Amino acid sequence: MKARLDGQSLLLLVVYGLFSLANALSGTFVNVFLWKAKSDYSLIGWFAFSQQIAIGLMFYFAGKWVKEGNKMNCLRLGILLAGIFYAAVLWIDKEAVHYIWPLGLTLGAASGAFWLTFNVVYFEVTDAANRDLFNGWVGFIGSGCGMAAPWASGFLISTLGDSRGYPIIFTISLVVFVAAVIISFWLHKRPPEGHYCWSLPFTSLRPPLSPWRVALPALASQGLRDGVFAFLVGLIVYIVTTNELKLGNYTLITSAVALASFYVAGRFFKVSYRAKGMLLGAMAMALAVVPLFFQIKYGTLLAFGIMISLFSPLFTVPMTSSTFDIMGIDKESVSQRVELTVLREFGLLIGRMAGIAAFIALVQWRTNNTAIVVFLTVIGAAPVLSAWFMQPLVKNQNAKRVPEAMGDAAEEAGEAKMKHKLKEQP
C-alpha cells in the first residue's frame, strides 16, 4: 500500500515550512552580520555553543510541559522566542556582538521549544510506513526555503546596503514567524500523555540490549558534524567572497540540488534501502571536502556544497526514521516518546557541543586555510561512524518488518476474499 500523509501531517509541514522560511531569510546572515561587526571565529563559535546549551536545557525541562500540558503552546513559544531574537538584533544592531550569550541562549531556547514539540507531534502523526515520506517532504521544504530565502536576502542586502538590508530581512522574518503562530492554531490540541519521568532519558541506556546504546553514539557522531557545518560553511563562503549575494547564490544552488535529492529520496526511498543508503550517503558526504584541498575559492566551495546536498538525503532520511522507529518498538516506548525524544536530542547535543568546542579550541591556535580544511575533513567524516553504528540496528528493523509486512498482506488478502464471498451471497 502506498504511503500517504493525512491532514494534520500536512499542516505540521506548513508550520515547519514557515518556521524554516523565517530562519532561512535571516539565519543564514546572522553569523555574517556578527562577523562584519567583529571578525572573530571564537565569537561565532561561542554564539553557536550558547545556543546548544539552551537547546539542551529547553528539551529537558520543557519535556514535562509537552507531556503533561498543551504541547502546542510549547511549539508557539519556540516561534515567539525566535521572533524576540530577531527583534532584539534589530534593536541593538551592531552592539549585538557584546550580547552573544543572551542572544545565543534566546535563539537556542527558541529552537529547543520548537523542535521538541515538532519531533513529538511528528512521531504522533506518522508511523513506520510513511515516516520516510514525511522526512523526505521535510527535507524538500527545508531545501526549498533554503534555496529561495537566502538568495532574496542576499540580493536585498547587496542592493540596499547593510543599514537598510539587514533591518528589512529581520523584519520580514518577524512577520513570517507571526504567520506560523497563527496557522499553528489549526493543529489539533493533543491530550496529555501521563507523567513526565525526569530520569528516563538517562536510565534508558541501562538495559544491556537497549537499542539506544547503539543509536546514541550514532547520533553523537552525526551531531559532531552538524553543529559546526550549520554555521561554518556559510561563513567561509562569505569570508572568501565578501559578498552577501554570492552567499545567497551559493545557498540557492546547493539547496536546489538538495531539494531535488530530498524529493527523490522521499518518493522512492524504501525501508530495505536504509542500511546501504545511510552508509553510501555518509561516505559521499565525507569525500565532498576533497575539492577544498586544492584551493578554497567560490568554485571549490560550490562543488563541496553540491556534493553534500546531493548525497545527504541518503544519510539523513534513514537516520532520522530509524531513530524515531525505536520509539515505536512497543507500547511502553510509545508512551515514553517525549522522554525518548529528549534522549535522542541529548545524543545529537553531545556531538554538536563537542564539535563546536573543538572548533573554538582550533581557532585559538590557528585560523589558516589548511587548518580549517583538515578540521572540516575530520568532522565531515563523522557521519560514517553514525552509519557504521546504525548498521546492525537498521538491519534488525528491516528483518522484523518482513514478517510484519507478510502478515499485513495476508490479512488484507483475507479481508478481500471475505468481501468477495459476501458479494457472491444472494
Automatic annotation (TrEMBL):
Gene3D superfamilies: MFS general substrate transporter like domains. Coiled coil: none annotated. The keyword Transmembrane helix applies. InterPro entries: MFS, MFS_trans_sf, Sugar_transport-like. Keywords: Membrane, Transmembrane, Transmembrane helix. It is found in: Cell membrane. Residues 405-426 are annotated as: Disordered. It comes from the Bacteria. The chain crosses the membrane at residues 42-62, 74-92, 98-122, 134-153, 165-187, 247-265, 277-296, 302-326, 346-365, 371-390. It is a multi-pass membrane protein. This is MFS transporter. It comes from Paenibacillus profundus.
